[in-house]
Design goal:
Layout lengths: L1 E9 L4 H9 L4 E6 L6 E7 L2 H12 L4 E10 L5 H4 L9 E3 L3
Length: 98
């Protein structure tokens, strides 16, 4: 089982539509509206990593999503090597405006 947690920046005024559309995607477990720099917090679940990557790619293509930050958790990897490197523990923010 693979789980991904994603925070999304949404264009002002499009939060409700983005929430509903993403909440109805297959593989999306939960969607929450949050306050702060990001407007949505999404939890995905899939049998394989490729399913999660496809969901994230579909969200990145949306015109109302301006940035995405995600963490992928998989039982298919040995994650111990990643915890030893301080730079790998930093969040990845992808700005989609460029």
């Amino acid at each position: 089982m693979v789980v991904a947690m994603t925070m999304l920046k949404v264009l002002n005024g499009n939060e409700f539509e983005a929430y509903n559309d993403i909440n109805n995607m297959k593989g999306v477990k939960e969607v929450y509206r949050i306050s702060g720099e990001f407007q949505l917090f999404v939890i995905f679940e899939g049998a394989h990593e490729i399913i999660i990557y496809c969901l994230i790619d579909a969200i990145k293509k949306r015109k109302d999503i301006t940035a995405i930050w995600h963490i992928l958790v998989s039982n298919e990897w040995d994650l111990t090597e990643y915890s030893l490197h301080p730079l790998r523990n930093r969040p990845l923010i992808v700005d989609l405006k460029d």
